[in-house]
Amino acid sequence: MKTLIWLSGLLLVISMEPAMAYLDPGTGSMLLQLILGGMAAVGVALKLYWHRIRLAIGLDKKKGTEEDEP
Predict the structure, then answer these.
(1) Strands, DSSP E only, in 1-70?
(2) Structural domain range at position 43
(3) SS3 for 26?
(4) What pLDDT digit, counting tens, does each position of 29-66 carry?
(5) Taking phi first (over 0 means left), then psi (-120 to 50 degrees means alpha), and beta for anything else, what does residue 49 get?
(6) Contact indicator for 33, 26 with CB cutoff of 8 Å
(7) Is residue 38 part of a domain?
């Protein structure tokens, strides 16, 4: 199955012709917005789930498991 996929991809690459496409100046700013928005989304997701991430890694203790509490 993998061989068939690679063979299909190779056939598509070999049989390509030039597209004669035009990229207007707004395309660069759109790509920049996409990249910056993605980075902001990752930052917000990390901020929202930071405590759970630290618990999963083992850097934080769960509340109520400390033995020195009275």
Answers:
(1) none
(2) 28-62
(3) helix
(4) 999 999 999 999 999 999 999 888 888 888 877 665 55
(5) alpha
(6) no
(7) yes
